[in-house]
């Protein structure tokens, strides 16, 4: 799964890669982004418009759900195109969630031991995600996950779907709605690019004021 991540690369460096329009809102570095908060995302609302930087609520509950049920933070790549809760968003409302790395926890440790996972070359990450409008018109999202690959397998059996650079434009393209076409055009980064290390258990409880000490190796 993907339940916590970090984002500290300056936003213009991330938006430039996909030609996204910056918002006037300042997005500060965050080293322990948790579900149920507003997160930095990129979407392309129409074929005729450029991608835009948006803040979306991390917890997927579309307006048609009428405020009922859970707010899943992840959607599985194996079923996102067929699951009734997600399939419309997969076909029509795909977005990118921006990150530098994410956290997972080693099972059966006490206290729970977090590991920080990122690219070996420290390049930022573009998580594949889907979005929808909630009842008040604001946007909500869920991050796609896939079976863990590379060294990520050491920590958890799932990981976020991290898109390679060649896939970013296709993932955002609103005119692509056929699931097989999308799957053909979109690919993930090589699993060998991923590395991880144990970090402070302070990650276990997100709070204001947490900084880059969270990603320092133990």
Notable traits:
218 residues; 4 helices; five-stranded antiparallel β-sheet; five-stranded mixed β-barrel
Provide an overview of this structure.
By secondary structure, this protein is mainly β. The chain is 11% helix and 31% strand. The chain contains four helices and twelve strands, in the order E-H-E-E-E-E-H-E-E-E-E-E-E-H-H-E. The strands form two sheets. A five-stranded antiparallel β-sheet has the order 2-1-7-8-12, with no helix packed on it. Strands 3-4-10-9-6 form a five-stranded mixed β-barrel. The two termini are 23 Å apart.
What is the straight-line distance between the termini?
A: 23 Å
Count of distinct strands: 12
Oligomer: single chain
C-alpha Rg (nearest Å): 17 Å
Order of helices and strands: EHEEEEHEEEEEEHHE
Outline:
globular
Low-confidence stretches are none
Kindly name the structural category.
mainly beta
Which sheet architecture does the biggest sheet show?
5 strands, antiparallel
Total helices: the number is 4
Report mean pLDDT, rounded to a whole number. Answer: 95
Order of strands, main sheet, comes to 2-1-7-8-12
How large is the share of residues in beta strands? 25-35%
Helix content: 10-25%
SSE topology sketch:
Elements: E1 5-7, H1 11-16, E2 30-33, E3 38-43, E4 52-58, E5 74-76, H2 87-92, E6 94-99, E7 101-106, E8 113-119, E9 125-133, E10 139-147, E11 158-160, H3 168-172, H4 179-185, E12 194-198
Parallel strand pairs: 4-10, 5-10
Antiparallel strand pairs: 1-2, 1-7, 3-4, 3-6, 6-9, 7-8, 8-12, 9-10, 10-11
